[in-house]
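To whoever is covering the structure queue this week,

Two jobs came back overnight. Logging them here so there's a record in the thread.

Job A:
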Amino acid sequence: MRLSSYLFMVGIFLLASCAPEAVPAPTGTPLPSATPVLHAPEIRFALIDEPRDVNVWELFDESGASYADYALRSEYWPRLYHLAPPEFTFESLAADGMPSAVTREGEFYSATVSLRKDLKWTDGAPFTPEDVAFTVNTVLAFELGFDWSAYYPVEYLERAEAVDASTIRFLFKQPPNVEVWQYGALQGTIVQKAFWEPKIVEAANLLPDQTLRRALKDARLQLQNLQTRVNDLTAQANAMAVTGQDNREVLLELQNQQNNLIFAQNTLNKLEEDVAGKFQSARRALYEADDDHEPTLGTWIPAGKENGVWVNEANPDFPFIKPNFDRATYTVFEDEATVVTALENGELDVFLSSGGLARNLALGLFEGNTALIITPNQAFESSFIIINPTHTALSDRFIRQALYCAGLHLPVRIMSPFRDTIFVPVSNGAWANPDAEIPCGDGPYQMEMVKILKSAGYSWVKEPTIQDPGDGLILPDGSPFPEVNLLAHSDDFYDLGSQDLNLIETVFHDLGIPLRVQITGAEDVRYEALSSRQYDMAILSWNLSLYPGYLCNWFGAGGQFEYGRESLRSECEALAVTSDLETARAHIFQIQSILMEDLPFIPLYADIRYDAYRNVWYPFENVLGGLGGLYGAPSYAMPAP
């Protein structure tokens, strides 16, 4: 998962039941209906891991990414736009207004953004389009990965260039979609050109030169041409052998071309190795570039370490998102138990971690700690039953609808504080279609299942009742419903618990479907579900991005779980090429409606994370991903009155 985008990463599938057992209501005094504007000298955060000394280039690449570093440093640099909590609304930051439409410009596609004219780096220099262009083009030149490549993907972006003193133009090799544009390049980190340009000259000189790059390109083309010729000769030789023709000349040329192909492959391998080595050396030098006294431009300014505590100071010149604290401190603790003690003793205000406070510690703090606020929030990881689209009996949407509606009626003990959330394939309000909902009745789930399936022509040897399970579900064609195998890995028992896994078995049993649960390793489940495709159903869990384009990656054409719905294919094809937010939203709404009609998966639950804090307030009680996903939201926190 990309850590700097952690606040954008949420459990997208808000599933019908979200936690293994009921969660007490948050403790502490509820938020006042009208919170006064307050100010305090300091907000105190707790971390488990020690931040490391890495510069901005390495910080947002794979080797430098860590939760502690992002919590401390993610708000040092400007971005053109961001997703504002709690609804994660797409809003401008360093940009002045919304970006232009993407238009064709010669061989490229271009779009422009106007910048605010009141932004200054901490050294007093103005923020300019040159800073944006330098950052983007440096990332592309070094082919940086992880967050950098997510923001500025080399397969899409050609370059960025300053148009005038307040306008930046992005040039794309192919039409960017919303994921690449609004949820990618427009939210990327930006650094100051004047500071960094002279410092990375040595590293840039280590990059592959144009001669080596051309040689690599030519080698790939030659290999492709040779492979095409070998394929043609192989087809000719096979055809001549079948008809009894003399194919000795063809076979001789085939052997020569196969030798040429081997030589070309070896040449390409050597060139790729040389290029990769040069990129590795260049990146290493880039990561080692000195960042002492680097100008920043964000809500917070780094103030170093004081008595072993990391300190950020509020940027007085930042024109928006004014913090309610003069500084934010970050103390590293040995483990969560010591953090809990410090919280109880009033020695800190907010605990930060990627996964939130451990459940047993959080529930233990509920009792008698009225000064502490333990807030359950929807976490990033969600679990669901994926159904093999090639399974004949399970391909009927009425079976899946019956299972879905039965899931909504599982006992209250496994429901969460988010029980009133309508299940749709995405959870963020901006992307959730409120009309994409399966109508499940309010009666006992056994009767709902019977009603759904009888309307579709199913019957039973013994029909289910409220008191007794069904026996021998019979398909509309008169054949018995076959036994179904459910793959689950042992880690699921940690989240679901054996009792809750038994609830899944109970639903199938009540429906009269023979179910066999196969517990195996996580790697085995992923292999069967994602590679061999030799499965009936599987319990899968994923951390999913806020932008729901993954729905097409899964269920659209060529997706892991494609099931052949033509209307879904069309919507996904349109979504893949639009860069207009409203148009993309319309396609996502249609995709959700299709998926809710077809139900190629059955929701189980979304994890709950627990956030513990005291002495501070937030303008939102619950937020997807929790406070940890927002790194404690120091720019939004308010001191308690």
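Job B:
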Amino acid sequence: MIVESSADHRTLVLGQFMTEGANGNGSVLASQAHEQLQRLIETCPALLHTGRGDGWLDYFNRGWLAYVGATLEEVCGWNWINYIHPDDVDGFVRAWKDTVASGQPLVAESRVRGADGHYRWFLHRKVAVRDEQGIVIKWLGASVEIEERKRAEEALRRSEHYLTEAQRLSKTGSFVWNTATNELTWSEELFRLHEFDLTTKPSLELALTRVHPDDRPLLDRTIGVAASSGQPLDVDFRLVMPNGSIKHVHVVACIVGQKSGGFEYVGTGIDVTASRLAFQEIQKVKDQLHKENIAFREEIDASSMLEEIVGSSEALRRVISQVAKVAGTESTVLITGETGTGKELIARAIHKRSARANRPFIRLNCAAIPPSLIASELFGHEKGAFTGATNRRQGRFEMANGGTLFLDEIGELRAETQIALLRVLQEREIERIGGGAVIPVDVRIIAATNRELPSAIEEGKFRQDLYYRLNVFPIHAPPLRHRKDDIPLLVTYLIKRFAARAGKNILHIAKHTLDRFQTYEWPGNIRELQNVIERAVILCDSDTLQIEDSWLQAGKCQAVEERVTLDSSLDHREREMIEAALTACKGRVAGASGAAAKLGIPRTTLESRIKSLGISKQRFKS
């Protein structure tokens, strides 16, 4: 229901657009315009209202009255307060009174109850109408429903709150970076991550002040490449906090557009400190397990050899005396002797009688590792150092730290590896392949060889300075033919050992078999004797051990045959690795992106092996 207003009131409602007292045609036209304007106000979809200069609301149009479902008398004056949400009344009334007192426009929001009983959000605007003296004589107001906007804003606030909480819980901050202006926009979590106050204006220069000095060059290069090329960002670095603590951060970002001659990146910065420390701990345990696993495998391998140095011959007594004298020192020992004479047993005896007995004894057969991999085995490598290096790996020097490293077949080392080994012996520090960090090591070296190193030096195959470094305390392991008095003891010991393993009871050895053992030259030495007895025990069906003469005649040929097979296998493996590197580098050998760098060996060495193995580089070039 619309309550009719007086002519004077309608004039004020219309903003005094018409002048009372006009006559003639002007009066008719004014009346018609008045009626049209009144009709427009009443039918307008906007919710309009007016008030007196003192704030008393005296008029609400048809739209307002229909919305609240009330008469003009029920809402005029200050009755409209009854339709405002209780939580909004105090604030809205205070704002309206302040507006009336100041005469300034009002812009405010509140919830208004509709005829259906539901509250909806409205935006209210009121402006003053003044007389010639500037006194407010009327207030004109309009209200617009903003329910959908408020819902959208609330949804956005919830979404932002959830995002902020998710970033806080996951320690993941987000940012926007304009490369042209270096302008940065950070989420709250990035402020927390860098430990800057939320009022601080973020900038690239400010962020870089927190970066660890050792990581700054890498980050500067990465940022430079991103700014010039638009490539995605993916980088790890450390932050140094004001209290000196370290945080590990992983940043990823990609461009979402170009602005003012630059790129606009959107990305995340993730605090990975906890996971990095956990990974380092896992890696430490993994390295230790790897070290123990290798040592365990070597112990198993060693179980096929003599557990004890058995014998009482003069030649063996000299060796045992030398072991006793050198074991308590830190001197480097070079053990020479033919293959199978028990050089590793001597090395283990030295280690067990030294102050390092409770520390690792790590062995490496230099002849069993391809030349291209020997440096990695000795010194370790970083992830990505060469093709196939999918993880960081400790070398034998690190595994043996605090203990003893036994380098068997030292005479088989290539020249470049000899140089690296000499440097370790001099400096007592190593560098992993593909890494720049210097790692100190405390390792005692015991080397062994069946080659005549002085002859190798004359032929230019072994470095003289390395020989002098290794040959501090030489021990010569005598061949079995020079200690034949020990053969009966050795045979008895070995029969007992292998018979127990096979579950047999062998009490005797045939006389012609023992005589044959003592007259045979044993080119394979103790290892050959061990193999012959193990075979005889397996085939023995009585309590007396005997052998066939043909077993000893074929011994030398068989050893040569096994060596040829081993060499062929190693060559095949080395060829595969070199060809894989050449394929990845498209036939290129030299340079930072060449095959030599990927394999971690000098270019000249790789060229030599390519030539030696008959590999054609041309077929790898695209």
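Note for Job B: The mean pLDDT is 82.

Please reply-all if you pick these up so we don't duplicate work.
Q.
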